[in-house]
Specification:
The complex is a heterodimer of chains A (135) and B (136). By secondary structure, chain A is α/β, with parallel strands linked by helices. Helix content of chain A is 33%, strand content 21%. Classes of the chains: A alpha/beta (135), B alpha/beta (136). Chains A and B meet through helix 1, strand 1, strand 2, strand 6 and helix 4 of A and helix 1, strand 1 and helix 3 of B. Strand 2 of chain A pairs antiparallel with strand 1 of chain B, so a sheet runs across the interface.
Chain lengths: 135, 136
């Protein structure tokens, strides 16, 4: 006697999975990183930084990015941060992730650090855990 | 065996079984990509807009192209960490935790970062002295 073929209904599984994808896409913060030629400095005892809401980057060609888009000067960053940051806000809300290439020199990064501080931000300086080899 | 009547066509069926496999792979990708990308570093709240005339020798760090100085003494980053740890800064009130830090010449972010990290991790607050007429 032939048994009836067992069929598991999987069509609705696909629907559920796609709904989950839509949920993840909507809820996630899209990376605002410039992601170009940034080699972070190496140091020890680093901690995990909070998820970035405000993001400043300087790449190896000294190009300055704010929230992933190219900006002209540190002054522009200060002006934007002043509008975005509540000085009485929590540490996490005030943290500005600062990712800078390790070869960038002081005349470039120091005015940016100053503008983040003046804009009311707490600097979350990105680095790479490790021991420096050279020097 | 069921016989097909003349002129009767099979109902067209789009195979959707593999859709859920693809969807679940995408979910796994999103979950992993979201949780793995984490930034490491340190948080530092630099006091802004305060005027400092000159660095005092007490609790002051100077970084130049030719080396790192703790007061008058030429030190390595490891020695600076030891010296700062000896001050027990984390147990002090906020005003006494300020460590003056000045960089002269065109030092790289790597050197600057290590000093900032050392001050921050010792419980200090870096009071950055900027050279007069610095670019903005």
């Amino acid at each position: 006697m032939r048994r009836p073929k067992t069929v598991v209904p999987v069509t609705s599984m696909g629907d559920i999975a796609f709904l989950l994808i839509i949920f993840f896409v909507i809820c996630s913060n899209f990376a605002k990183k410039a992601g170009k030629n940034v080699q972070p400095p190496v140091s020890s005892n680093l901690i995990v930084l909070p998820k970035p809401k405000l993001y400043v980057a300087v790449d190896s060609e000294h190009k300055l990015y704010f929230q992933g888009r190219l900006v002209g000067s540190a002054g522009e960053i200060e002006a934007e941060l002043t509008q975005l940051i509540d000085p009485n806000g929590s540490v996490e809300a005030r943290t500005v992730i600062f990712e800078c290439d390790k070869s960038v020199t002081k005349d470039v990064f120091e005015p940016i650090l100053e503008s983040i501080a003046k804009g009311g931000g707490i600097i979350g300086a990105v680095g790479k855990e490790g021991v420096r080899k050279e020097k | 065996m069921a016989r097909r009547r003349r002129g009767q066509r099979d109902e067209p069926v789009i195979p959707t079984d593999s859709f859920c496999d693809i969807a679940f792979l995408l979910i796994i990708y999103f979950i992993l990509a979201a949780s793995l990308s984490r930034d490491w570093g340190f948080n530092t709240d630099i006091p802004a807009g305060q005027k400092a005339t000159e660095a005092t020798n007490e609790k002051s760090v100077l970084l130049r192209n030719d080396g790192l100085f703790w007061g008058e003494r030429n030190v390595t980053v490891a020695q600076l960490r030891q010296a700062l740890a000896g001050l027990n800064l984390s147990g002090k009130d906020p005003n006494s935790r300020v460590v003056q830090f000045e960089a002269k010449g065109n030092v790289a972010w790597q050197d600057y970062y290590e000093v900032l990290a050392a001050i921050q991790q010792a419980g200090g607050v870096p009071g950055i002295l900027m050279e007069a007429g610095g670019k903005k």
